[in-house]
Amino acid sequence: MSSARGLANHHLYLARLVLDAWGRECEAQQVSAATLSEAFGPACHAHLGRAYGWFLLAVAGAEPLPLEPPSRAADLPPRPAGKAVPGEIREFERLEREGWLAQMLAWAPQRPGQGSAARARQPGNLARPAPSVDGPDTFRGWARDLDSLFQRMGDSLDEY
């Protein structure tokens, strides 16, 4: 599987496997959601990011393929002189600035001591607010959005 599209689909598949395991662990309710997010979030995020990067290379028609995919459209290899930037790449650039893709690319796992749980307790109150945690549903949404984008743009690539 050396084609950029094949690699994109492979990493999307791997992300789904991570999501399935994450979901099973959430259902078992034996480990806190925050700990599961720390365990599964980075792996899932890495696969989604690689899927996106390889698909960027497929859309750009980059050959030969680099050892690692780019993380953003700006990291793509330069276009040959006189060759226009595909409209799909422009759409990716826009989505990277705003919307779901910008959120996916900006995601970073919370470190212990970060977030709302790290705030000091209120005087007279021993409770601390629970940390806000991105669970598997957040990542499932990104995987679904990537898959939809891959399908739509893949169909237009097949026409060429």
TrEMBL record:
InterPro entries: DUF6586. It comes from the Bacteria. It comes from Parahaliea mediterranea. Residues 111-139 are annotated as: Disordered. This is PasA protein.
